[in-house]
Amino acid sequence: MSPCLLGCVVFCLLQAGAVHAGVTQDPTFQVVRTGQRTTLKYTQDMYHDSMYWYRQDLGHGLRRIYYSAGVPSSEPGDVPEGYSVSRSNKENFPLMLKSANRSQTSVYFCASSYSTALHGHLLFVQKVLGAHNQAPSTGNLGPLRATCL
Predict the structure, then answer these.
(1) Where is the Immunoglobulin V-set domain (predicted)?
(2) What pLDDT is attached to residue 148?
(3) What are the tens digits of pLDDT across the range 11-40?
């Protein structure tokens, strides 16, 4: 591809505007006292069935905390201790820290995907690559950082 054509394609893509990913994670940074209960909010407006919460700690890859395959289900992941979730509708999947402690200081990620019978080639909206064996695409937010003092 010639440099001129490549520049034209890039310019046209930039003019198209940002793709609306439809994922909101709130707050983006939170400091919590030890023993305090807090909720990390996660909302998506793409009508995805499956929603996920992950945490990433220094020296570890992504570890799934909880996931939901649809309303009202939720299943524990690799590190569910000290957390709870609820799924009362398709759009929301809040993560509650029951009683914050220093071991929960982490970077938290949320993700959503369509559910299929085979769980293959799913649309996966997030800011993290390659988690849960699904084809990733970039969402519109960064990680949430929570510090427990």
Answers:
(1) 30-115
(2) 67
(3) 333 333 444 557 888 888 889 999 999 999
